TrEMBL record:
One of its GO terms (cellular component) is nucleus. Residues 1-21 are annotated as: Disordered. InterPro entries: PDCD5-like, PDCD5-like_sf. This is Programmed cell death protein 5. It comes from the Eukaryota. Belongs to the PDCD5 family. Residues 7-21 have a biased composition (Basic and acidic residues). One of its GO terms (molecular function) is DNA binding. It comes from Calicophoron daubneyi.
């Protein structure tokens, strides 16, 4: 029993160490690609829209690894990149009315 538990703990520690290493590498790449103001803007996006920030981070890392980003992006360049991303995403908002609830609640009673 204890041998399997210690094996599980070692495996868990290795996974945590690997995850931490990936996060450090990710942070290092983003620091090389973005200047301080652009990085602050990305952090603000991460607070409000974590999924979008993760997508932008992945895209920036991919662009850096493939050589499409050769110098640090300023905040204005980063804003333009965000605008391009937003224009490619299509948002359709739908509004649904629940008419049954309005029919049940009548003020005449």
């Amino acid at each position: 029993m204890s041998a399997s538990n210690s094996g599980d703990k070692d495996e868990e520690k290795q996974k945590e160490a690997e995850m931490e290493r990936r996060m450090e590498l990710r942070s290092a790449i983003l620091s090389q690609v973005l200047d301080q103001n652009a990085r602050a803007r990305l952090n603000t996006i991460a607070i409000t829209k974590p999924e979008k920030a993760k997508m932008v981070e992945n895209m920036l890392i991919n662009m850096a690894q493939t050589g499409r980003i050769t110098s640090r992006l300023s905040e204005d360049q980063f804003k333009n990149l965000l605008l391009q991303i937003s224009s490619h995403e299509s948002k359709s908002t739908t509004v649904k009315f629940d008419r049954r609830r309005a029919a049940i609640d009548s003020d005449e009673d």
